[in-house]
Design a protein that fits this description.
The complex is a heterodimer of chains A (about 290) and B (about 400). By secondary structure, chain A is an alpha/beta fold. Chain A has two domains: about 10-120, NAD(P)-binding Rossmann-like Domain (Rossmann fold); about 140-285, 3-Layer(aba) Sandwich (Rossmann fold), CATH 3.40.50. Helix content of chain A is about 30%, strand content about 25%. Chain A has helices at about 20-30, 55-65, 80-90, 100-115, 155-165, 190-195, 215-220, 260-265, 280-285; strands at about 10-15, 35-40, 45-50, 50-55, 70, 90-95, 120, 125-130, 135, 145-150, 170-175, 205-210, 230-235, 270-275. In chain A, strands 3-4-2-1-5-6-7 form a seven-stranded mixed β-sheet, with helices on both faces. In chain A, strands 9-8-11-10-12-13-14 form a seven-stranded mixed β-sheet, sandwiched between helices. In chain A, β5, α3 (about 80-90) and β6 form a beta-alpha-beta unit. The radius of gyration of chain A is 18 Å and the shape is globular. Chain B has about 400 residues and is α+β, with helices and mostly antiparallel strands. Chain B folds into three domains: about 1-20 and about 95-220, D-amino Acid Aminotransferase, Chain A, domain 1; about 20-95, ATP-grasp fold, A domain (Dna Ligase, domain 1, 2-Layer Sandwich); about 235-395, 3-Layer(aba) Sandwich (Rossmann fold). Chain B is about 40% helix and about 25% strand. Chain B is built from 13 helices and 18 strands. Chain B has helices at about 5-15, 30-40, 65-75, 125-130, 150-160, 165-180, 220-225, 235-245, 265-275, 290-305, 320-335, 350-365, 380-395, and strands at about 25, 40-45, 60, 80, 85, 90, 95-105, 110-120, 135-140, 185-195, 200-205, 205-210, 250, 255-260, 280-285, 310-315, 340-350, 370-375. In chain B, strands 7, 8, 9, 10, 11 and 12 form a six-stranded antiparallel β-sheet that branches. In chain B, α2 packs antiparallel against α3 and α5 packs across α6 (about 165-180). The chains are: A alpha/beta (about 290), B alpha+beta (about 400). Chains A and B meet through α4, α5 and α7 of A and α9 and α13 of B.
Chain lengths: ~290, ~400
Amino acid sequence: MAILVDKNSKVMVQGITGGAGKFHTERMLDYGTNIVGGVTPGKGGQAVCDRPVFDTVAECIEHTGADVSVVFLPAAAVKEAAIEAVRAGIKFLVVVPEHIPIHDMLRVREEAVKYKAAVIGGNTAGIITPGEANLGIMPDIAFAPGRVGTVSRSGSITYYVADTLSRTGYGESTCVGLGGDPVLGSTFNEILWMFEEDDKTKAVVLCGEIGGVYEEKATEIIPKMKTPVLAIIGGIFAPPGKRMGHAGAIVEGKMGTAKEKLDMLADSGAHPCKTFKDIPEILKKLGV
Amino acid sequence: MRLYEFEGKQLFRKSNIPVPEGHLVSSPAEAYNTVASLKHAVALKAQVLTGGRGKAGGVKLADGPNEAKTHAEQLFKLKIKGFPVERVLIEPKLDIKQEFYVGVTIDRANYKLVLIASGEGGVDIEETAEKHPEKIVRKSFSVEDELFTFDAVDIAKKIGVPGALLRKAAGIIVNLYKMFKVYDAKLVEINPLVLTAGDELIAADSRVSLDDDAVFRHADLKEMGIEKRHEEGEMTEREKRATEWGIPYLDLDGDIGMFPGGAGFGIMGNDFIHYYGGKPANFMDSGGGPSPERIAKMLVLLDENPNVKTIFGARFGGISRCDDFAKGVIMFLKEHGLSKPMVMRMTGNMWREGVRLFEEAKKEDPSLMEKVEFHGIETPIEEISKRAVELARQQGVK
């Protein structure tokens, strides 16, 4: 088992005929991801990497049975594309583009909840179940099949954590990128609970960063979990009030400092880590 | 994107929220002339993109032009949390009977819009919420919800708006909520919403923050002169240069030049350097999929910074490609030259091609990579961080 995607997932790409869409469709296929088709309105009937292109998500689902979608579109087009996908029956959506208007993302989240679909991103590197499926832009070199789940707000941190887990023999069950935008399709909570219910996942590494409220919110669910959670937070030494990188990573007044987040997570039962090196050491102590 | 008070009030006016008649001035002489023509007592308000203006002495009252000029002279010398005062808003002094608070913001954790109102305006609403939660009225909405007048009347009543003014107050609340949605706002606040001695309701101050990522669909903002701007006080020369080049960059007070890939590790890499006893000289982010030219520029910023003793490079290619990264580093080494040691690690998307490019460049000119310690996936990033701290120390000893 894994969460959200595996080798049986039937994946479509929204924006498959665009530059990024094409490039990453090829990469995802190389990894062995089961991509069954793509959507670009007006380009129905064409093919990309031998996969059929459709005008609408509904048509793509009808002809290919797709149940998962990866979005490679300009930010301004994401709201429509995402709502189209979940209304047509897509159960899991990966939103790679960044800088999606916040009000759009609020709407997307509402629709996703209504149609019981999961959304990750915007600004996510994607999701990978090593050896089975790679959706998004993650480099496969870092990943190896295994027993630790990761959920992160940053692509680069996902790579480093996976690199550490792979190197030390733990490997990863599934790695989920929540995304770096200020409002995201999913919070840590939904993903943590999926890992809790997954037999293959023996521990979860939560990677957060300064700013936002999602780490604080995770403290509601961690005490309810039997699967151990390790937490690492970027920005412990970040100057307050300065914008660092991600649109989401700005400390809003007193709220959202990395130190407070890490302390709160530790209080809720997570095992705090300073650097990636601490992860295998803690896993070892926990007997994972 | 935070707006100046006067800009927020432009949006208020467009949204049918009453505001005082304002005059924007940029010199004490202009302040004198404006107040001389007004013939009533005024408030002079420094325009800065930060809170705490009142406490910093950024608001003054004046009865006439001479007093206004004296105050303006002080205001234009003022720096509020690093922000110089370049403009002052002059408005009629209000005769205040009561002050309310009305604001709309986003509850990110619950994916809702939240309307907040209070009968105690003019003060820090977060403080009120903490100390007297009973004095705050809160209502959540889904992003598609409309705010109806009957709900707004109810809210106005709860915060103590007198009966005769309920409909007017409700209209202001509804218009503020509409404005929040129309302009893709992250925060809109009227604080205070003033009830004057003449029983008028008027927005005495504005605090508006819009979503940078949605500005593209509001062409009228540009017409009003509202564009994306730097919001963090004064920039250093290097920060200005980086901004011109489109590189997110902050100067910090250490000596290790940070040359990371990815915003996430850009943030965490700074922590790592601290954990190993060093201090970063900067924060920097390459953005997704940087071009070789951009990579080269990032290195120019660090190499030309006299505070930087050594450079820490990390590239884990995802959407960005290691071959482009290598091309950028080589371009920098050839065209600019590296004047200090650099330790770096490169792996991820297209790493083989990246390594090949470095080897080729070395063959061509063996001295090119002399100051570069190059690592691949086999070396954990912690070791690279440690090494950077060590190199900086060695440089310090010299």
